Amino acid sequence: MGYFVEVEPRVKIYVEDVGSGEPIVLIHGWPVNHQMFEYQTSMLPKYGYRCISIDIRGFGQSDKPWYGYSYDRLSDDVRTVIDALQLERVRLIGFSVGGAIAIRYMARHSGRKVAQLILLGAASPSFTKRPDFPYGNTVNDVDALIEQTTVNRPQMIEDFGQKFFFSPITESFRSWFQLLGLQASSHGTIAVAESLRDEDLRQDLNKILVQTTLLHGVKDKICPYTLALATHKGIPGSVLVPFEKSGHGLFYDEREKCNKLILKALRGLQTTK
Question: What is the residue-wise DSSP string for 2-35?
Fold first, then answer.
């Protein structure tokens, strides 16, 4: 079932709501939309979970305003959805920039209504290198993505997709995945890339007090594994599980392992194997 939640006047967020039981809220990555979780949301309801997948503003079927793409505003949108649906004991899952938004939510809103956090290939704690943080991408790398978006967005999405997966994927899958990115607005794509470039979550990490599991591809060329190590170090009591045969798209590179470990984490059975 799909519907819209108004997060502020004249801005509605699209939500895909599947299954029943304990609620899971899923936040997608850049530059795609909630459909990237297809291989998770078709499995988890079988085990008694309600999957609530959000298209963040500017992406997928959500409204595409000119403004509102900071991590603060995007996390506020997540809070509005959680409150509007009157959810309790939420399991919050964030992929890539969705993981960054989830972290900001936990810090900014004191983990409101969230019982557990699962981060997949999270763009955290800083997507770009800083004078005191030598990991991640360079500012110039992100600026090049932004520039290409303004000139030839379909080609940018295709080039970005080439780095996404470590395992071979079919051309039909690649075309589908690229289409998800094309459903976004150009200005939203650029604005979230700017947030990826400029935002810093290092001061947010120690405010996360719920059970947290990090799943991250060792071969990740977009959010390098060193980012996962830094995030793991910053979140008290977190568990980090490396995916040796995955790039950024671990949800598909090692789909069975990813689904199995998400399910185990949801059931409270954490493992590093």
Answer: EEEEEEETTEEEEEEEE--SEEEEEE--TT--GG
Residue whose pair of structure tokens reads 């008290």 in the numeric block: 236
Q: 107 near 131, Cβ under 8 Å?
A: no
Kindly list the structural domains of the chain, giving each domain's residue range(s) and its CATH number in brackets, ordered by start: 2-266 (3.40.50.1820)
Alpha helices in the chain (DSSP H): 38-41, 71-84, 97-108, 139-162, 171-182, 186-198, 225-234, 250-253, 255-266
DSSP 8-state assignment for residue 133: B
Query: Residue 204 and residue 107: Cα distance in Å, rounded?
Result: 5
Q: What is the pLDDT of residue 52?
A: 98
Point out the residues of the chain with pLDDT beneath 70: 269-273
Residue percentage of the chain with pLDDT more than 90 = 98
Per DSSP bridges, beta strands 11-18 and 239-243 are unpaired
187's tokens: 């200005």
Active-site residues, by number, are 96, 220, 248
Angle between helices 71-84 and 97-108 (to 10 degrees): 70
Measured in degrees and rounded to the nearest 5, phi and psi for residue 55 equal: -90, 115
Going by the DSSP 8-state scheme, the letter that residue 128 receives in this structure is B
pTM confidence score: 0.97
Determine the angle formed by the axes of helices 186-198 and 139-162, rounding to 10 degrees.
130
